[in-house]
Amino acid sequence: MKSYYLILITIFLTSCGVVDVVPLINKNYAIITPESEEKVEYDEQRNIFYGEDELQTYDIFLPKNQPEKVPVIILLHGGGWSEGDKGFINPIVGYLKQKNVKCAIVNANYRLTYKSGITYKQQIEDIDLIIKKLRNEAKSLNITPKFFLMGISAGGHLAMLYSYSADINKVVEAVGGIVTPSDLTSEKIRQGRMNTDIEKLIGKKFDEAPEEYRKASPAFQVRRNSPPTILFYGGSDNLVPAEQGSLMNARLKELNIKHEYYLYPEQSHNWSLLNETLDKMITFADKYL
Question: Which site in 74, 136, 181, 191 is 20 to 30 Å from 145, CA atoms measured?
């Protein structure tokens, strides 16, 4: 239980840059389990359909015997929007369970752009379908409709885009991304395989629809009322350049949105600091869920 107080933390790390550290806000529920409490056990339900497509499924892990309704963490995998599977981020599920997080954990698939007619718009619809289904089943699942969206690479992009979209009902309390594309109009990110993936995501080449690329870019969709955001980028990432993070950080600062931004100069797109990153994600989520 947390009462009315404010903590400002200044972090100095030699391995990463930290910008705009967020104050702890008032709330009365903690997702972090004190060491003195018993280990949290979870009920598992796998491959639950939220639509008619074979890819519209998720796994859900529900803490047992919780006296209060628990908030929800939704995980979205990477894979250039065109491939990948929720199974790829089972290690994240395992780590969250190991840390005894008192949240429902939803590990979601979404429709992929290798299928005809699937663009970012259908993928955003899938996130909305998941959230609507969970909200409709909140009582039976013993969850409260408070969501933290977390994604890696393409999954982080979709998490941010959904959370920032102006025409989406605001149900996301916080959002987090690791090596997340933020500006699809940037020529530096539209190179090689990444350019092909982005063209599939939009459904058109950049010269044909530059405004559509802007609409699909979280950096240009973020609003002053957008949710708190935590982001991680690598200075040695050859797929998602570090400037994608610095731009997003600048936009969040400009709009005075509570956020944390971490730049690890030696990290590549193959992120190797997952446990440390997830610890920061959990602490961040605990402030807002």
Answer: 181
Q: How far is CA 118 from CA 55, 181, 201, 203, 218, in A?
A: 12, 19, 8, 8, 19
Tell me: the pLDDT tens digits for 127-181?
Answer: 999 999 999 999 999 999 999 999 999 999 999 999 998 666 578 999 999 999 9
Q: Which domain holds residue 145?
A: 17-288
- Residue 202 φ then ψ, to 5°: -85, -30
CATH number at residue 74: 3.40.50.1820
Q: Is residue 10 part of a domain?
A: no
Helices 120-136 and 154-164, interaxial angle, to 10°?
Answer: 70
**Secondary structure of 205-217 as H, E, C letters:** CHHHCHHHHHHCC
Return d(Cα 196, Cα 41) in angstroms, integer.
43
Q: In this predicted model, what pLDDT tens digit does every residue of 190-227 receive, in sequence order?
A: 999 999 999 999 999 999 999 999 999 999 999 999 99
